[in-house]
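Q: My labmate handed me this sequence with no annotations at all. I'd like to see what the chain might look like in three dimensions before we decide whether it's worth expressing. Could you predict it?
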Amino acid sequence: MPINTMTITATSANLLAQFGPGAREERVSEYEVIESIQTALRDGSGAIPLDGVAWSIVALLMFAGSIKLYKLYRSHKLTSGPYVIFHRLAHANGLSIAQEWLLIRLARRQNLPSALTLILSGDTLAHHARAVAADTPPRRGRVMLKHVNRVHQILFNKPMPIEAVNTTNADQNENIE
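A: Here is what I predict for the chain of 177 residues:
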């Protein structure tokens, strides 16, 4: 029996440590804070303790501010820059999205700063189209030049010069040597 009594005493000591006077004091202090807020709101006098509330408001404002800054950044990014201007010009001239992507890929393959240079000058478009066609297999080069020729007709109301359309890898290599 003494072992059982010892076990019960140890268990009650653990329960007392977990749910004893210290834990009760924490609960009482939370209730006191709530009561003080209610009293201050009812009477209109007295200070409201804002420790937790103030930090919550600051965190919420910081979160909302960061979202606002991100949206501002995104809106600025979407309303300025060479690709936005390129897209607007291409759309205004009646190019499809596929044709825009063709010009963008062409500009990237030629390491141009933007596709705007291709949309502004027919000779520049023909030159870079010939250069890319020379670096691709003959059939793909001819297909790409056919699509670029269509874009050239839309943008400048005339087809590309015939030598640009009929260029193949073999013709390009003969011209270089």
